[in-house]
Amino acid sequence: MPVPAGVASSSRRISGLSSRDAIYGPARSLEGRPAWYGEVTMSIESASKWRSANPQPTVDELREIGLFGALCDEVLEHLTKTLETRWVPAGETLFREGAAAHDMFVVLEGEIEVLKRSHLNHDHRVALLGPKDSCGEMSLIDVQPRSATARSLAPTRLLRLTSEDFDRLYRYDLTSYALVTLNIARDLSRRLRVADGILADFTAHVLDQRVKPRF
């Protein structure tokens, strides 16, 4: 299935935090949307259909994803057989802010928006994610509730990596486990740098508006 039209280019997308126009873009209300993971648990029947109804990723696909950078083909082949994939329709909620977390997702095809709820209880878009981008990585590191909500904007093919998958990778190949952990750390560091820059620009803008120079 081809990548849906409208997927933002990689130069405009930052996983977790994006450019200022993405930061301030309004989002629709999430009320009434079904949760996928976190708030509900998949039944055994639906879990068994996860893999059979959706094609597994290829080694070539995984090789192009930053999360799996520097992994050897043997390990990539192992991951294609053990990780789960799924097509989700437009408007599907992957997880909600504040929900329990134990998995992350990589976009293989399609587009995902990341939403953050303000103190006024409004949801605002903070990122647009496309192919090769990922979300939910922090759940594998700090085991804390979700810090944001993720929802599909188009029919999207996802790769799911759970904490159990992460533990299996540790037992299967320690070097690959360390590489994936390092790749996650690098991505989180990159997002933090972007967030720092956006916060600095926003603070400077507010001060410029409120504080007038004295003559």
What CATH architecture do you see?
Sandwich
Question: How would you write the strand order of the largest sheet?
Answer: 1-8-3-6
In sequence order, what are the helices and strands, one letter per element?
Answer: HHHHEEEEEEHEEHH
Largest sheet, strands/sense/barrel: 4 strands, antiparallel
Q: What Rg do the Cα atoms give?
A: 18 Å
* Separation of the first and last Cα atoms: 64 Å
What is the count of helical runs?
Answer: 7
Fraction in beta strands: 15-25%
CATH topology: Jelly Rolls
**Residue windows where pLDDT falls under 50 for at least 5 positions:** 1-52
Q: How many beta-strand elements?
A: 8
Topology:
Elements: H1 20-23, H2 44-52, H3 59-63, H4 73-82, E1 84-88, E2 93-95, E3 103-109, E4 112-117, E5 123-129, E6 134-135, H5 138-141, E7 149-152, E8 156-162, H6 163-172, H7 174-210
Antiparallel strand pairs: 1-8, 2-7, 3-6, 3-8, 4-5, 4-7
Helix pairs in contact: 6-7
